[in-house]
Amino acid sequence: MSNTSQTVSFDLPAASPAPSRQLARKTMKHRGFMIGFLILLFVGLTALFAPLIAPYDPYRQDLLARLAPPVFLGGDWKHLLGTDALGRDYLSRLIYGARVSLLIGFTAALISAVIGTTLGVLGGYFGGKVDAVVMFIVSVRLALPATLVALAVVALFGGSLTVVVSVLGLLLWDRFAVVLRSATMQVRQMDYIAAAEVLGASLPRILFKDVLPNVMNQLIVIVTLEMAHAIILEAALSFLGLGVQPPTPSWGLMISEGKEMLLFESWLITIPGIALFILVFSINMLGDGIRDVTAPEGRN
Q1: What are phi and psi for residue 89, nearest 5 degrees?
Q2: Nearest CA to 226 among 171, 150, 166?
Q3: Are 102 and 49 in contact (CB under 8 A)?
Q4: Tens digit of pLDDT for each residue in 218-260?
Q5: E strands, the chain, where?
Q6: Are 222 and 283 contacting, i.e. CB atoms less than 8 angstroms apart?
Q7: CA 295 – CA 286 distance, rounded (Å)
Q8: What residues does each domain of the chain span?
Q9: Model-level pTM?
């Protein structure tokens, strides 16, 4: 008798990539996210290194070179985007204006996120009377038109950068509260929340370790939306003369200063207007991309 040996082979399933790698791969493939991210990265780096990039001091006046047209309209390469009515280099003011827009947008969105997230998470987690109080506060806020209130407050206290940021931050938190309240109510019903409560976990531990990480994607998306909203409101206030005050370079203020020359030197409005559109567009594209990439139904 001969013993026949047989080799048994087992086909092991291929190890799936780590969730972080899957997320990174999906992010790189999302065209809208990458477009928004790259544009915002370019604007952010330009604003950060403005002193090294700007060819001139944005406050320097040269009345002999006032209203010089940009290069694409036959101007001199000495001033690539021309000069304004006071002879200040338009490219330099545009670069420094990106600093103002990003600073106001990010800071106002951060203040709003802290206020709205706190109210939304508390209302959604506790429910009952706490939720009723939160929704009453939200209803009061929604009854106040943000633009009109901002105009009134800035007109009353002045249009400094600090006042504008504070006003916008205190007016744009309602969307955070509503969205995060709804998201927290859904998370509140999960088994791991009940398990943490049974095990005696403290309230701060449950809120910061179990609730907030599971509503973070909604929070990030709302931050991007409100950042774009704050930039638009700041530009509107500056255009009306109640936002950032001269000579601080602001895209809204540049549009306001150029409106008197609209029929003769339309590029004074077109250039900062296009810059404002591109910045807001990139932030919205980034927010939409984050929503698509992090949505549970879009995960593998």
Answers
A1: -65, 125
A2: 171
A3: no
A4: 898 899 889 998 998 888 888 887 778 888 888 888 888 888 8
A5: none
A6: no
A7: 14
A8: 89-294
A9: 0.83
